[in-house]
Amino acid sequence: MTLQKSTVSHTGALPTLPYYLYTDPRILELEKEKIFSKAWNYVGHTSQVAKPGDYFTCEAAGEPIIVVRDQDGTLRAFYNVCPHRATKLEKEAAGHKKILQCSYHGWTFQLNGQLHKAPNFKESDDFCSGAHCLKSVRVETQASLIFVNLDENAAPLAETYADFFEDIGQFGFLGKLKKHEVKQRIIKCNWKAFIDNFLECDHCPIAHPGFVATLDMSKYNIINGPYCNIQGSSVKQSRSDYDDAEVKEGRFYWIWPNVMYTVYPGPGNLSAIQMFPVDHETTLGVYTVFLEGDEPTEKQKELLAFTDQVRKEDVEIVELEQIGFKSRAFSQGICSPTEHGVHHFAQLVREALDL
Ligand code: FES
Ligand SMILES: [Fe+2]
């Protein structure tokens, strides 16, 4: 997808979502059921489960999940829950194992999810014959990114975010990246406020001085795709400090409902930004940075400091916005023509919630 031409979906002022959707705890319950438990949930990068026996644990739609590369090399995902009496099976964030063992009564499972041994059922020889397996979850991979979906009937991953995968596929370094760092931040806003913020750059000249000093904002463009949004621009001509092997643009992606990816100018890099609702007015932001190589170079360190600064600037404004959502002054806002990404997201939320 080219970002050369401005795409604006409307010319007048269109309404935002009504503000009660950002302040009512009942709406979050509805969103869990109608949005998060039906969507593809990004959970990690293929480098995190490169070899048979590698695993990591995560959450998808509030469910504990384990993603594992089994002995045959097949990537699998399961609810991280023991079939015996529900104990969370693996406690560690990541590791390497030949067999998975529950810490309560010691049931063991093969990496393909089959029950291996159930010590407290020694007398029943046929107990391990296939029943009582781990419960599997759909897992699919595109562009070295791993996703799970709790909905058996969801459309395939590649089809759901076709435009996103086509565009991000231009960065040949994705498969070479390794997880470098994870930062978490509690943000005092509804999760949708952070997404709204990401989907427009009207705020960039005001909130992000370093960002607009680096990218050519006269060419900045924002394009809506089905279930995704792609935006970015090249670095300013005056910035000659990027060599040919480096990325010379900023590219920013959002995919429905709560995940964003950023590629910043500089050495090959990708950040995944996940916004997990904690409650209706609190969000856990998880920022995972992937880089090439093992030890960050000076240039990579500079890039990390730059992205961190931009993120901080966004957190400040969305927390101020949440204060206003609760005010009786207004019950709804308006989207400018260049806030068409915000309006697109609002439409998807309305459709998902049947509003
Ligand atoms: S709950 Fe897992 S072995 Fe009993
Ligand atoms: Fe921003």
Automatic annotation (TrEMBL):
PROSITE patterns: RIESKE (PS51296). The keyword Secreted does not apply. Gene3D superfamilies: Naphthalene 1,2-dioxygenase Alpha Subunit, Chain A, domain 1, Rieske [2Fe-2S] iron-sulphur domain. Coiled coil: none annotated. One of its GO terms (molecular function) is dioxygenase activity. Its EC number is 1.14.13.-. Keywords: 2Fe-2S, Dioxygenase, Iron, Iron-sulfur, Metal-binding, Oxidoreductase. Its cofactor is Fe cation. It holds the Pfam family Ring_hydroxyl_A. Residues 40-148 form the Rieske domain. It comes from the Bacteria. PANTHER family: CHOLINE MONOOXYGENASE, CHLOROPLASTIC. This is Aromatic ring-hydroxylating dioxygenase subunit alpha. It comes from Paenibacillus oleatilyticus.
